[in-house]
Design brief:
8-stranded mixed β-sheet, about 475 residues, OB fold (Dihydrolipoamide Acetyltransferase, E2P), binds manganese (II) ion, BirA Bifunctional Protein, domain 2, alpha+beta, binds adenosine-5'-triphosphate, 14 helices, 2 domains, elongated, 16 strands
Length: about 475
């Protein structure tokens, strides 16, 4: 008999499945016994909902049934009947049970519900089996899929940028090195420097912090591209919003100015929310009930509200006039802290905010200079509870100006000569942005810690396996 997924059974019209025989396979979430009957809640990962299995003890060997405990993996064949329980329309009456794997009750750590998220982080190998992480990782899948769908439907190309790179567009010191040199016996040059010519690539290399610079090369040929890949930052920021290994989506578009860029980003965010509200309504409903009672309202609100757009300079004025007691002082030129961002988004505007035209000193060298010579065409998108989820800009497309900015920022020419060259040959106005995948996951799941929206989080001094 062919196995059927539990989700298919539960979404079917009960009339069409009642009275039929099915085979289901999954993991036992709970087993409740009354006199001669057991009720097993079976979950196979296809949905947050469990299928109730009714086991008549007289049909099975007693010692065999003892092995079917929380966490064990089983296959069950039987007839679907209408359920007398009010919460579920159907249940499966077991005729035949196969035990694939036991989960000894004295050792299996997920015996009861309600473990803390901190505890579950320590058992990253088992936490996908909880309702919470099942929901989160299903949402993660649907989010990734909807990102590809959004861009594909718009004619963007998925452009693969390298993971091992030689350039560092964010500034040195935050990158993970990649090397095959013997750390116990590092070859040195006659001047006493590390001799990278003996390394695997013959050059100093590191894991990428962003695919943007290479993404621009794609956009200046294919028109509209996006990247979607792992990104690595060795920054020692032990916050609830930073990972050392995270995923980033970076669209890059030729012939887009900063307004086009903002429009695309806003449309993108709304598209993803709308998609998830439909595709994941059960999982989102679960998270809404268990963790964040305002989650669904917030998502609907963001979907229905035009984002507030204002300049950095206007934001600084609002913050200065706010009479709030910020920990970090506010003045023109300061890099905004998350307390400032959250005040603007959650208290002042009560909706997502797009901030533009930041001082050039606090932004990257590749952002297009405004006519004031002081600010750049940057745009950051801030959302409630998370703060910055998107950082983007129109790119400097003028050769001389870009050259100047590279110098001012002391970016080594050996790292960016190829990038600069695109402004020599067929340069075109273009724009792009980066969306942190896990930041967006925080926003759509309502979870409070970025470690809980990626299967295997990597943060300073923390890597489970
Ligand atoms: P932040 O100021 O929050 O550290 P950033 O200015 O370093 O962010 P960008 O370099 O603009 O961020 O990266 C683009 C996007 O990638 C950010 O808007 C954010 O969503 C995400 N991001 C950046 N750093 C991290 C990180 N360490 N972990 C997870 N996501 C990140
Ligand atoms: Mn950062």
């Amino acid at each position: 008999m062919q196995r059927i997924k539990i989700k298919e059974l539960l979404i079917a019209d009960p009339k069409n499945v009642i009275g039929n025989e099915y085979l289901v396979k999954g993991w036992v979430r709970t087993r409740r016994e009354s006199k001669n009957i057991s009720f097993i809640a079976l979950n196979d990962g296809s949905t947050i909902n469990h299928l109730q299995i009714v086991v008549d003890h007289s049909k099975f060997d007693e010692d065999f049934l003892k092995k079917i405990t929380t966490g064990s993996a089983i296959g069950v064949k039987g007839e679907i009947l209408e359920s007398p329980a009010p919460k579920q329309p159907i249940e499966l009456h077991a005729d035949d049970i196969e035990l694939y794997g036991e989960a000894p009750a004295d050792e299996y750590p997920l015996q009861k519900k309600g473990h803390s998220l901190e505890f579950l982080r320590e058992i990253a190998h088992l936490r996908p089996r909880t309702n919470t992480f099942g929901a989160i990782f299903r949402i993660r899948h649907h989010l990734a899929y909807s990102i590809h769908k959004f861009f594909n439907d718009k004619g963007f190309y998925y452009f693969h940028t390298p993971i091992i790179t030689t350039s560092d567009c964010e500034g040195a010191g935050e990158m993970f090195r990649v090397t095959t040199l013997d750390l116990y016996n590092i070859p040195l040059t006659s001047e006493g420097n590390i001799d990278f010519s003996q390394d695997f690539f013959g050059k100093e290399t590191a894991l990428t912090v962003s695919g943007q610079l290479e993404g621009e090369l794609g956009a200046l040929a294919l028109g509209e591209i996006y990247t979607f890949g792992p990104t690595f930052r060795a920054e020692n920021s032990n916050t609830t919003r930073h990972l050392a290994e995270f995923w980033m989506i970076e669209p890059e578009m030729a012939f887009y100015d900063i307004i086009d860029n903002m429009n695309l980003a806003e449309e993108f965010i709304k598209y993803l929310i709308k998609y998830l509200l439909e595709a994941c309504y059960e999982d989102l409903g679960f998270l809404n009930n268990m963790y964040d009672k305002e989650l669904l309202d917030r998502l609907h609100h963001v979907l229905d509200t035009p984002f507030e757009r204002l300049t950095y300079t206007e934001a600084i004025e609002i913050l200065q006039n706010s009479k709030q007691n910020f920990e970090f002082p506010i003045y023109w030129g300061v890099d905004l802290q998350s307390e400032h961002e959250r005040f603007l988004v959650e208290k002042y505007f009560n909706k997502p905010v797009i901030l533009t035209d930041y001082p050039k000193e606090i932004k990257a060298f590749y952002m297009k200079l405004n006519d004031d010579d002081k600010t750049v065409k940057a745009m950051d998108i801030l959302v409630p509870r998370v703060g910055e989820i998107i950082g983007g800009s129109q790119r400097e497309d003028n050769y001389d100006k870009l050259f100047q900015r590279i110098k001012e920022n002391h970016v080594p020419m050996k790292d960016v000569w190829w990038y600069l060259e695109t402004r020599k040959f067929g340069s075109a106005p273009h724009s792009g942005f980066g969306l942190g995948f896990e930041r967006f996951m925080l926003f759509v799941t309502g979870m409070g810690n970025i470690r809980d929206v990626i299967p295997f989080p990597r943060t300073p001094k923390n890597i489970e396996f």
